Amino acid sequence: MTNDTPMKLDSLWRGAHAATMKNGLYSVIENAAIGVVGGRIVWIGEEKDLPDYLTQQEQDLGGGWITPGLIDCHTHLVFGGNRAGEFEQRLNGVSYQEIAQQGGGIASSVKATRDASEAELIASAARRLKSLMADGVTTVEIKSGYGLSLDAELKMLRVAGQLGNDFPVTVKRTCLAAHAMPPEFKDKDDYIDYLCETLLPKAAKLGMADAVDAFCEGIAFSTEQVARYFKTAEFLGLPVKIHAEQLSSLGGTAMAASFKALSADHIEFIEESDVKAMAESGTVAVLLPGAFFTLKETQRPPIDLLRQYGVPMAVATDANPGTSPALSLRLMMNMSCTLFALTPEEALAGATIYAAKALGIADTHGSLEVGKVADFVCWEVESPGELSYWLGGDLLKTRVYQGEKK
Length: 406
Ligand code: NIG
Ligand code: FE
Description:
alpha/beta, 15 helices, 8-stranded mixed beta sheet, 8-stranded parallel beta sheet
C-alpha cells in the first residue's frame, strides 16, 4: 500500500490496547488500530503505523483492552424447565448419578424439552444467550441432547439455528443425541442403532448439525457404543466431540482421538496415555469448571500433563440445567484459574483461539489477525488479566460483531 492509494475501510477502530491471542498468547498491540472491510479484519497494528486510509466510520474506543469476541464452545443452552429442585436434593447429599438412576437428571430435562413448544424454547434460551452475549460472547456452540427422538432433537437444533438468526452471535450446532437413554428404548444398543440408521443421517441431510457429540459414561453410553455412533458421523462427514472421563475413566477420550475428535470435554479422569493420544490427533481439551464446581468434584483435569504434551485447552460454560447453570464465560475463566490453576492468559486463550479450534473454526475466528472475522470486544479493564480476575461484574464497553457495534 503506497501513500497515494489509501486503503478503503468500512470502519476503523482505535483508542485501546489489544490482546490479539495470536498463537494462544496475549500478543499485545499497544494503542491498536483495527481496519475492517466486509466484516473481516484487513489491517491490525499500532495506530502509529497505520497507512493512509479512507473510511466513513471511525470509532474511538476510549481506552481499555480489545480482545477477540469470546467463544463458548460447549453449551446446552436450549432446554425446557430447569432443575433447581435437584440442586436442593444434591445439597442434601443425593449424588448426580443417584438422581439419574431414579429417573431425574437428564431424563427430567428431556421430558420438559419435549413438552415445550419451539417458541417457549427460543424464549427461555434467548434469556440465557443474552447473558452470555452481555459478557462478551460472539460465538456459541449449542448442543441438542434433551430431545432423544428424531422430532425432538431436530426441534432443538432448529431452535438453536433460530437463535443465531435472531441475535448478533454465531451459533454452531452439535447433535448430542447420544446423551442419555430415551424412555421409549430399553436397550442402549438398539438406541444407538436408531441414531446411526435414522437420526444422524436425517440431521446431516438437513444440514442441521456442524458436529456430533456423545456422553461416554457409566450412566450414559459405553466406549464401544459411542465408537459405533462416531463411525456413522465420520461416514456422514461430520466431525465429532465427546463428553468423556468426567466421572470415571472408560477410555472414551482415546477412542475419540482415534476419530480425530475436535475436542474431548470434561476429562477430569484422563491419564497420560489419553493426553498423548489427544496431542497426536490435535484434539482440544475442553475444561468445564462450572460442572466440576457444581458437582463438587475433587479430581482435577491433569493440567500439567496437558501443558507438557502441548494439548490446547479451551474453557467453556457447559451451560445446562443440571450440572452447570452457568451464564458467564468470564466467570468460567476465573474458575479455570482458581480451581484448575490455569494462568489468566491460558484462560483467555481457552475462551478465544482454542475454543475456536474446539469448534473447527480457528481459521476464521478466535484471534485478532488479518483475514479473520471482525468479532471483538473492548473491555473496561487496565490489563487483560482482569478478565479472569473479577467474579462477574459488567466489564464490557463495546461489542463488535462482524465489524459492527452490536
Ligand atoms: O456436560 N455430562 C453430560 N451432560 C451435561 C449434563 C447434562 C445434564 O445434567 O442435564 C454436562 O455436564
Ligand atoms: Fe456438557
